[in-house]
């Protein structure tokens, strides 16, 4: 697939948890594209629906969740219509995921090198000997020093940053086209965060990866992402290239996120106060209306129209139709 072509399309995705009368509208009509060779950041505070979207791409939603509308297309093929056996072949090989806390998904009883081996043997049908050789090469790609030694470590012997590198090694072992990174640096110190983000950017270039980076911190994407999607309470608020998001944010929620990010504390005096709305009974108009400093009467009653301009989208009445 050529760089810049649409690799994955999320179309009017709606995901609800639970049942009436406590039905939670976790994701409510979200649409966006991920292009080949690009890093797309999906940004929003905790509870906004980011991880739910990521898990739906890989068919890993919990049993309490159900997709009630929409579609997810990967290379033009609907992932939602695949049989479990077909999805199993894609998961880990064509689409893979790096999770927030690596020690929680690395098997504590198996050497970390052997855990990478398992992925290669499962999807690539290689021998144990070949898998071992390839694993050490992959360790070098993710900048793990002394791969021979680290191969024989158990997860508890690794620092948080090194464990995350092993998690990334597992995720890229089979040369996937799309890597989903769910808050991959949130539990790391600032120096290690920067190293992991730099690694992801380099892997995107070296391997031709597309990356969906999920984060609550708009500050971490400034030097990393190509495009940014802002999501609030299950709804898309704004989407634009990373330069436009920082230089000319269109949605009040984007401004609020910028004001709270480390790299832009003085950029704006707007701060989002309060909490996310109750998604069992979301407000009828704009979901940010209960916290927005610019709220108008129409915001409280009517969902905002979408303004499209030069590759950007914003869902806000302030910007007109």
Give the structure's gist in a few sentences.
The protein has 321 residues and is an alpha/beta fold.
The CATH C-level class name of the largest domain: Alpha Beta
CATH architecture of the largest domain, by name, is 3-Layer(aba) Sandwich
Strand content: 15-25%
Helix content: 25-40%
Q: Give a quick account of the main beta sheet: strands, pairing sense, barrel closure.
A: 8 strands, mixed
Structure report:
By secondary structure, this protein is α/β, with parallel strands linked by helices. The chain has two domains: 6-94 and 176-319, Rossmann fold; 106-174, no CATH class. It is built from eleven helices and twelve strands. The chain has helices at residues 50-57, 84-90, 102-105, 112-124, 128-141, 147-151, 160-172, 190-207, 242-247, 252-260, 297-301; strands at 6-17, 24-35, 39-43, 65-74, 77-78, 95-98, 178-182, 210-215, 227-232, 235-241, 306-309, 312-315. The protein has an eight-stranded mixed beta sheet, sandwiched between helices. It has a four-stranded antiparallel beta sheet with strand order 2-1-4-5, with helices on one face. Strand 7, helix 8 (190-207) and strand 8 form a beta-alpha-beta unit. Helix 4 (112-124) packs across helix 5 (128-141) and helix 5 packs across helix 7 (160-172). The radius of gyration is 20 Å and the shape is globular. It starts with 5 loop residues before the first strand and ends in a 6-residue tail after the last strand.
